[in-house]
Amino acid sequence: MQVDIDMGTTSAGDVATLDIEELLATRLLVQGNSGSGKSHLLRRLLEQSAKWVQQVVIDPEGDFVTLSEAFGHIVVDAERSEGELIGIANRIRQHRVSCVLTLEGLEIDDQMRAAAVFLNALFDADRDHWYPVLTVVDEAQMFAPSGGGEVSEEVRRLSLGAMTNLMCRGRKRGLAGVIATQRLAKLAKNVAAEASNFLMGRTFLDIDMARAADLLGMDRRQAEQFRDLKRGNFVALGPALSRRPLAVTIGPVETSARSSSPKLMPLPEKPEDVEDLIFTPDPEDMTRQASAPRRVAPRPRPTVDIMDALSKSSEEAETPEAPARGPRAPVMSDEEKDDWIAMTLAEIAGAPESAFRSDSELYQDFLMRGRMKRISGAPLAMNDFRRRLAIARSGADEAMVESEQWQMAVSLLAHVTEDLQGVFLMLAKAAIAGDACPSDAMIARAYGTHSARRARRFLDWFEEQGLIVQHTGLAGLRIVAFPDLDRQTAGGNPDAPADEPERRDAAE
User: To which H or E segment does residue 10 belong?
Assistant: First the structure.
């Protein structure tokens, strides 16, 4: 079945049509600088095709949630656990319901992770549910960046993998990718190259025009026309649009975004008592609460908190009158409990995979070991666990822990974020002991990453906070000094590999 939808008019005054059936098989790339009408184009496409095909919109700014009132799209707030997002995505495909995944209010890392989890769940749906889905991703350069950026390497790989699956392998699973970007140069080439249909809007930068001309098969002189395009005007090319480059003016839309571009308007007349109006406090200022976040669903309760609460409730439920349910371990003294905590933390920190597991996972492991020893309640709170685990990971022995310099190093943790405390103490231990400065690979491993570049950024951040001073010694070896401790490390090769414990196969 061929379904042509009306996208607007051509330069000749004819109706510009888009073949939905062909689009589902060939995918679409929309490019345009901010203010070019890119979001308007996506809205026109979604409105015109809403009755013909199921739609899923990945919406970073929450602009497309207005589709729900006019066309019945389900709005899914991304402020949910990964398990919830996976379950919702599976049911979306099962029941063939159009939806908008709004990422508004999340940090960029959380946006990328939520979008990746949702897209992967759509991709991994059962074969029985591989119905056609028009999958629109706005601001695609965020989810498929050409470079590393400021996000973690794990999140970048997860998001890029999901976008690659959508554009490269999604067609056989019914997923038709429609991606929109402000900057072609910032979009991963392997993602952009999979599109066969293009709608190119106003572009000013030479590097973006060169990418657009390359995708459309134009020379540089022809690409200059992208600078002269007006708002809402695009050059269309592809089997679903036109076999030759075609100028298209996008038609009107029924719905509108919640946010719009600011319009100029005259200032009001200045009142005579303007200073009093501004500087006189309003009685409501004292009672007004901070505005609630623009999020519908509350953040799910962490599993760690649930386990901690269960442990406490179990402790409270134990009464002398309660009958014994079996042999119980003798009650530990405070000294025995401290020894057990120290030994357990050393075992957890020494595990080869410990560095690449989250603190929440390790804390759950710690609580489980405590319950196996029949220790009532939580032996350590989460914050105390993180600090003591960082000390255990540093490798400091008992004599060093009791030293004055080490106590000073621990007090400096008040100026360090929780995720970097283990890295800081590892450097401090090397300085106090006079050992060689850890390499980039060792610092990265202590943080739980493989990125040497991030390790260097950690050192630069410590130096910006005034905690350390870096300098280069003989033979290009790195030395890290601690002004507050009056200690410094010996020279170390920053490019040396990490000392990872050898892993032997079970057969050995």
Answer: strand 4-10
pLDDT per residue as tens digits for the range 40-80: 999 999 999 999 999 999 999 888 998 988 898 999 999 88
pLDDT of 33 reads: 83
Q: How far apart are CA 176 and CA 475, in angstroms?
A: 56
Contact (Cβ atoms closer than 8 angstroms) between residue 21 and residue 3: yes
End-to-end CA distance of the chain: 61
What pLDDT does 13 receive? 86
Q: d(Cα 423, Cα 416) in Å, to the nearest integer?
A: 10
**Per-position DSSP letters for 193-253, written without gaps between them:** TT--EEEE-----HHHHHHHHHHHT--HHHHGGGGGPPTTEEEEEETTTEEEEEEEEE---
In the chain, list all ranges with CATH 1.10.10.10: 395-501
Contact 223, 54 (CB under 8 A): no
- The DSSP annotation for 75-86 comes to EEES-S-HHHHH
Rounded to an integer, what distance in angstroms lies between the CA atom of residue 194 and that of residue 190? Answer: 7
Check: CB of residue 147 under 8 Å from CB of residue 156. Answer: no
Cα three-residue angle 85-176-157, rounded to 5 degrees: 55
Q: Phi-psi bin for 458: left (phi > 0), alpha (psi -120 to 50), beta?
A: alpha
Total-model pTM: 0.53
Domain covering 4-250, topology: Rossmann fold (3.40.50)
Residues forming CATH 3.40.50.300 domain(s) in the chain: 4-250
pLDDT band at residue 225, thresholds of 50, 70 and 90? confident
- pLDDT reported for residue 291: 45
> Which tokens sit at 299?
């953040």
Phi and psi at residue 98, to the nearest 5°: -75, 145
In this structure, what token pair is assigned to residue 41? 């184009």
* Token pair in block for residue 20: 């939905």
Among 448, 450, 312, CA closest to 376:
312
Cβ proximity of 205 and 227 under 8 Å = no
Query: Where does 395-501 sit in CATH, by number?
Result: 1.10.10.10
The Cα-based distances of 493 to 409, 425, 441, 450, 490 in angstroms read: 23, 19, 10, 17, 10
Q: How many other CB atoms are there within 10 angstroms of residue 471's CB atom?
A: 10
Sheet of 478-482: strands edge to edge?
469-472, 478-482, 487-488
Under a CB-based contact definition with an 8 Å cutoff, are residues 229 and 244 in contact? no
* Alpha-carbon span 58 to 78, nearest angstrom: 10
Q: For a pLDDT cut of 70, what percent of the chain falls above it? A: 79
What is d(CA 464, CA 370) in angstroms, rounded to the nearest whole number?
40
pLDDT surpassing 50 at residue 295: no
Question: Which of 253, 183, 334, 194 minimizes the C-alpha distance to 6?
Answer: 253
Q: Is 485 or 268 the better-scoring residue by pLDDT?
A: 485
